[in-house]
Amino acid sequence: MVLSRFLPKNPEFIQMFVKSAKNAHETAIALSDLMDNYVDVENKVRKIRDLEHIGDNITHDLTNALTTTFVTPFDRDDIMMLASRLDDLVDSIEEAARRMWLYRMPSPTPEAQRLAKIIAGQTLALAESMHMLIDARHSETLRDVVKKVTSLEDDGDQILDEVLAKLYDGVQDIKGVISSIRWGELYQYLEDATDRAQDVAYTIEGILLKNA
To answer: Which CATH number is 3-210's, of 1.10.240.10, 1.20.58.220, 3.40.50.300, 3.30.2350.10?
Structure first.
């Protein structure tokens, strides 16, 4: 059954979800730029923090719209879940960037750059498809997006396993231990962001299943 046949469309929600997903992608692109062009770090991290605040405002707007709207395009709990998952995604990206600055990391590793690119790929897929959520005719396309985001998350898991396995190789002093601990945390924050993107994808999948 086509979702639009039995639920009135409310473009306000979809437009806000599109805006939220695009903001998540902009945040991921800013993170990838930080990793690939590691200069002016404080200002780049501040930009990412500003984008995180924009995401908070969008989530706030979604919550307000939910409390003042009688008819919603899909289940209210799912609206809140999707808004929360998108917010968590941006928060995790911002936290990874913030740690790079707080820890005064000398330069990103190739693995950190790869993880940032994975997050950017996930958020791009979500941002490009979020407008389709209102129309069940796009269900198969959205399921392909879920598969793509999940596959990229698997790539992130593999990178994390690889770096953790060799994180303390050759470490012989306290300074090296501290550096390894910090990188371990950073890799985990980056991989957490890939998990949060997958959470968004799974929430979309759940909405599709409920309205199939």
So the answer is: 1.20.58.220
